[in-house]
Amino acid sequence: MGKRKASVRMFAKGWLDQIKADANAQIEDAIAETITGLAAIGEHAVSIARDNGSYNNVTGNLRSSIGYVILRDGEPVLQGESRQFSGPKGDGKEGVQVAEALLDQLRSEYPSGLVLIVCAGMNYASFVEDVHGLDVLTSAQLDTEQQAEEMVKELFTRH
To answer: What is the pLDDT at residue 14?
Structure first.
């Protein structure tokens, strides 16, 4: 009888290990699909913000400071390509550096899960929106929030 119990346990153990492996593979597939979706949303957000920003791009820094990163458990898995924009009074190099520094700094605020962060890194971005009423990230945020909701709904119906 002892052998029979041992063989049943071995069978169950192997079977459970396979279920666990299959479930983990499905989870990883869903995560990869989510990251791909978040990347598309991030690219779209950055494109909207850069193309539709209603402010004067005097130094090039504000438009150059717009970027995104996708984090998985606090670690970057994908970062949007920085792009430098020149203005009549500057080359925008500072904006690229500020965006990368801000995205790196924000990582610590999101130690778990999948996170998409889109930023306008220059410290005056909110001033341009709030005080001057000009669009820096607002239209991108509104559009991408809707896209994210649709992506999540679609993922849950498929998985």
So the answer is: 74
Structure tokens that stand for 12 in this block: 């169950």
- Mean pLDDT across the stretch 59-78? 95
In the chain, % of residues over pLDDT 70 = 91
Residue 147 has pLDDT above 90, yes or no: no
Task: Provide the domain limits for residue 97.
Answer: 2-158
Query: Measured between alpha carbons, how far is 154 from 41 in angstroms, rounded to an integer?
Result: 14
Q: How many domains in the chain?
A: 1
With contact defined as beta carbons under 8 Å apart, do 103 and 66 qualify? no
Per cent of the chain over pLDDT 90 is 65
- Secondary structure of the chain in HEC code, one letter for each residue: CHHHHHHHHHHHHHHHHHHHHHHHHHHHHHHHHHHHHHHHHHHHHHHHHHHHCCCCCCCCHHHHCEEEEEEECCEEEEECCCCCCCECCECCHHHHHHHHHHHHHHHHHCCCCEEEEEEECCCCHHHHHHCCCCCCCHHHHHHHHHHHHHHHHHHHHHC
Q: Is the dihedral of CA 126, 64, 87, 139 positive or negative?
A: negative
